[in-house]
Amino acid sequence: MAIRTRVTEMLGIEHPIVQGGMMWVGRAELAAAVSNAGGLGILTALTQPTPDDLRREIERCRTMTDKPFGVNVTLLPSMNAPPYPEYRKAIIESGIKIVETAGNKPQEHVEDFKAHGLTVIHKCTSVRHALSSVRMGVDIISIDGFECAGHPGEDDIGGLVLIPAAADKIDIPMLASGGIGDGRGLVAALALGAEGINMGTRFCATKEAPIHENIKQFIVDSDERGTNLILRKFHNTGRVGKTPVSDKVVEISAQEGSVFEDIRPYVAGAKGREALETGNIEAGLVWTGMVQGLINDIPTCDELISGIMRDAEAIIAKRLGGMLG
């Protein structure tokens, strides 16, 4: 038995499972492994220092898989913004057919991607932003619940409410994201109105994830309570793993009169990269979601996706089917 949805049809993939675009993690090794396992792997554009480096990474990924894969472009407010139009051009000229966008004011990029025939997945954390994205012309919405790693928005709506609330108002296909890491999560997402799932933290704890083994074991050893919300005071809430670094950020932020400059040294992206590459959780932030409480092993991507699909099909056909009578 296979699970077929509009997402599998539109993306040309076997299983309705998409790997989230993650900074420093979305490299060719992981994206190719996810795609080879029947899901959709995603390279992260800004992980590459320059647009030309992204071109090379796309070609490297093509040497590792002949299956569809996409590229993530996350648009973040910045004093020194990356050359987004040049990254966009690299994606288009490299012949990529699927792009995941996230962040602020994506319209210029969405319009250009669509004009060149790309399928656009846009990540949102609220129904109102999802509706805006539909009007913008995106093809698939990835709706990100409060449980997620990264930036869950400021509304604090968990997936159990957010997914069906979005499904009630959106006609295009949706991916459910945040707090999903196994077959139960896939079935729940489908029941709530999504047509596939997007996983980030779960794919970090796989053999092919290009991060240090200590970080993978940190995810396995952590439970669902082991995250911190940071940057809330500055209206840019992020969910990260509970570590000495994120504890310090929370402590400083809680002090009366504290400003962003007080925590800047702890939240720098280069520090997070150092943590992922060296395995030293005291080096920088480790971005993980509540789903770590459901992660107990470090399989290959093929083992993970095969297990998710096997469990999901069994739940639908046997457990839920057996309740009908």
UniProtKB/TrEMBL annotation:
UniProt keyword Transport, yes or no: no
InterPro entries, sorted: Aldolase_TIM, NMO
Record-linked CDD domains: NPD_like
Keyword flag Nucleotide-binding: no
Keywords, comma-separated and alphabetical: Flavoprotein, FMN, Monooxygenase, Oxidoreductase
GO MF term set: nitronate monooxygenase activity
Pfam families from the UniProt entry: NMO
Name assigned to this protein: Nitronate monooxygenase
